What does this fold into?
Amino acid sequence: MKIPLAKSDIGIDETAAVVRVMESARIAFGPEMTAFEAEFARYHDVPDAVMVNSGTSGLMVSLLAAGVGPGDEVILPALTFLGSVNAILATGAVPVLVDVLPTSANIDPALIQPAITDKTRAIMPVHLFGLPADMTPILALAKANHLLIVEDACEAVGADSGGRKVGAVGDAGVFGFYPNKVLTTGEGGMIIALDQALVDRCRAMVNQGRHSAGVSLPGHSLRGTELGAAIGRVQLASLDERRQARTSLAARFREVISDVSGVSVPWPPSTERSWFTFPVLLPPGTDRSRVMQRLTQAGIETGAYFPALHTISGVGAQVRQSGPLAVSEALGARLLCLPFWRGMTSEPEMIAGELSDALSNS
Ligand SMILES: Cc1ncc(COP(=O)(O)O)c(C=O)c1O
It folds into this structure.
């Protein structure tokens, strides 16, 4: 592929960090992970953080550590990555889908209250494509109904939300560090929480349930890696600079895409966002697969995500739908994610031109 969808932003400093770990002979559960957790917590102004092996594990563990389980319901947007819903299903709780707003693709706060039942234990807002969900009404709803908030910040590391960093607004926040993310450790993730006791339970649960207080909790083997942590520390140190570069790139994309007839970018410009990928909306009725096929032929990789969760085979039967999910369905059918990575030169113009051609020929 001439222009891939994502490119990890890693360089010689990350390589040097990996070599440092290899030469130290301490290649698991060592000082790099301890330092990465402390630095990540400091960046987010929270007391502590726990590195895990993936964002999905982090979401599952933070729910379990907060006591979510069978018989409970967890509210989340219908438009998100499978990892959000799989994490809830793994706890034994029922995911309850709520529709999203057409202008942000994030959960519609006005639809949360009608979704709350006496079984609801938690709300999982997702900061989709790096745009923070509207947390003020969600915090108020959680407080009024005594619900936990676990933020799925897997796509939004570095984004701001009303003076806090995303993930540090609710009771717990979870990040994913897969290579398409703004901060990568290869595979990996991080849990942060405001309550030290909750963080301690998460730390125990990702390490066979071994708690520093001597008690044993339900446990798994979901630890982060020492090599990943070493990479993550370098990535965290340059996060703000890389986020800024991506903000400028997004502004350029917005401009060139405005010339492509019928294609819209409904997300409002936001200084709080940490751009993950660049999603656009194709005109209604477009044969998206055909457009993608034509772009592939031109050497441009694109992504058709995310489909609304309940439309995915095998998922629909395991979730409860709270009301119509028409916006999620419509966005899910029309979204197209364009290549987006730091270091692009003439690519945005080339992508816009090819997209325009692909639409007129599809
Ligand atoms: C919204 C969202 N939630 C959860 C995850 C899960 O992260 P991971 O792939 O690290 O398990 C991702 C990662 O792609 C994501 O985009």
Notes: The chain has a mean pLDDT of 96. DSSP finds eleven helices and twelve strands in the chain. The pocket of pyridoxal-5'-phosphate is lined by residues 54-56, 80-81, 83-84, 126, 152, 154-155, 176, 178, 189 (CB under 6 Å).
